[in-house]
Amino acid sequence: AHETTHALLDGLHRYFGEPSNEDVLAFHEAFADIVALFQHFTIPEALCDQIARTRGDLSRQSLLGELALQFGQGIGGHGALRNAIGQIDQVSGQWKPAEPKPTDYQNATEPHDRGAVLVAAIFDAFLDIYNRRSRDLIRLASGGTGVLPDGAITHDLVSRLAREASKTAGHMLNICIRALDYCPPVDIRFGEYLRALITADRDLVPDD
User: Closest Cα partner for 184 from 64, 66, 18?
Assistant: First the structure.
């Protein structure tokens, strides 16, 4: 999916392959990762094991982050998801989300590294939406406390959380793809893509 997205993007915007600024090639890498990642997350069955294993503890935001890290490793370790989302702590052995710094974008000049900034921003928005959409499920399963009891969570809760994650991923994927029609044909910059995301979605669903 990652490599196919590169080819499709070349067909839609052929000048996105000409590095007229440092964002252009970085956008190519980031967009390919975004599409491949969210395409994977649209399959609920692919998420159930991760959700069950972390007991739906969304406060750590490791649920989909661990899967994103595995995805980055699965495409050869060169993708933006290699370190955009988080990494394994060398001491505890646990996955920890990356903490963004204001200098991340300025200091990244290599396309994969610079693209990682955009991937991280989009993925963080996805996690935020997913957490808010699933908050009521956690409250119902915890008797209103929002804190799940110890032990494995029920199969029904796993399935519902997986469906919520899948639906959210599908929405995000469509928004990210639709924005391409609102981008300039040459010299793309991250800011222009982010404006395109908002404009395209507002045009389609003005009341949301």
Answer: 18
pTM, whole model, 2 decimals? 0.81
Contact 40, 170 (CB under 8 A): no
Count of alpha carbons within 13 angstroms of residue 85, beta-carbon side: 31
What is the rounded distance in angstroms from the CA atom of residue 159 to the CA atom of residue 153?
Answer: 10
Q: pLDDT tens digit string along 81-101?
A: 545 566 667 787 666 667 778
Query: Within its chain, how far is the Cα of 195 from the centroid?
Result: 18
The answer to whether the beta carbons of residues 164 and 134 sit under 8 Å apart is yes
What is the Cα–Cα distance from 162 to 156, expressed in whole angstroms? Answer: 10
What is the rounded CA–CA span in Å between residue 116 and residue 85? 8
Cβ-count burial 97-122 (b if 16+ within 10 Å, e if not): bbeeeeebbeebeebbbbbbbbbbbb
**87 backbone dihedrals φ, ψ, rounded to 5°:** -155, 170
For residue 115 the two structure tokens come to 């693209």
> Model confidence over 159-188: pLDDT tens digits?
998 899 899 999 999 999 999 999 999 999
DSSP string, 103-134: THHHH--SHHHHHHHHHHHHHHHHHHHHHHHH
